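User: Predict the structure for this protein chain, please.
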Amino acid sequence: MKIRTALTTVFLLLFPTLSFAGESKLSAGDTAWVLISTALVMMMTPAGLALFYGGMSRSKNLLNTIAMTFISYCIVSIVWVCIGYSLSFGKDISGLIGGFDKIFLNDIDINSLSGTIPEYVFLMFQMTFACIAVAIISGAVVDRIKFSSWIVFSVLWSIFIYTAPCHWAWGGGIFEELGALDFAGGNVVHINAGVAGLVLCLVLGKRKGYNKEPMLPSSITLTALGAGLLWFGWFGFNAGSELAANGVAASALLVTNTSAAAGAIGWLFVEWLKTGKPTLLGIASGAIAGLVAITPAAGYVGMPASLIMGFISAIIGFYGVSFLKYKLGYDDSLDAFGIHGICGIWGAIATGIFAKSGIDGSFMEIFSWHATQTYSQFLSVIITIAYSAVGTYIVIQITKLITGGLRVSEEEEIKGLDTSVHGERGFELGL
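Assistant: Here is the predicted structure, written as structure tokens:
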């Protein structure tokens, strides 16, 4: 008996990664990959999205645009660890929201695990998604929203609007019950934020001089650099969402890059055909459209599907930003809804069309599976749109009561928010 016990002890010491069935065991490889992915996604907000949006804004509002994305990251970082994580991943309440059991990270320590990684790593990874979701909304309303109102809105939206779809998709909520797939945030991040941006810009109204005077980007160079950083960070966004260093993560990495490239080429093709000019802004926008579309599907589709999804997302995105908003007359400043909302909807539904069913049966069995899955995807999209639209409108009204209004004065808007709000200028050109 003593010999057997000694041999068992030696065996466990020699093979520390083994565990008994049903037990969670820390994986150093998985932990290292998600740590890296967290850092990659973090970079997407105060660096990638800040430059992408900043370069598209007018020069007199460049710093204000960057400041809105930067402060979004700071605000949501605090909100998330205090209450956001608990509402998203706490004990399920009727499939609608998480409980308060993890508020202020209660009962979580360095030994707590989420699957094969420390829970601290998991919650930090998820925090970066919440941060960029809020920052995406800012693109719809730059040039005219009060900075104080943006801060209040960010706090309220991240608590009351972001956490519910996050719980529905990943915390044991109603999307899981529906069987809806959202690998890395099609509903949770892109559709949710895109619809919120549309509602916010409709309530806020158009910029002074919109469609009457040119509103030229301050620096397409900055936008292209920002797009490159977003593309780089998106590898963590999608491949990191597997929460493990395995073949699915590798496949997600592959299809993410393929869809982005197909999106960039697709936008270039359509724009060149329609306008006769292949713009760098179009190439960058197409890459982001492709990245948005593949996000919900990254862990479920293969390379051929990612080519189709990326290319179609570029066509949809191009007409969304060059035709739809002008036809309907809303002022989505930097096309938050046009790219994230519209391409996010396409990506979520396309996930049902192209996801691998795992069925080796007849054509009708496979078709039936995809039809059912696409229906589930469609339902999840409708629920997300409705919740985000109504919830965002309520948050806007509360923000207006707290801050006394959303919009800067006409004088501040004409002068530019960099100098009138921040007392700074993005470019010193000797003027």
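The chain has 15 helices and four strands.
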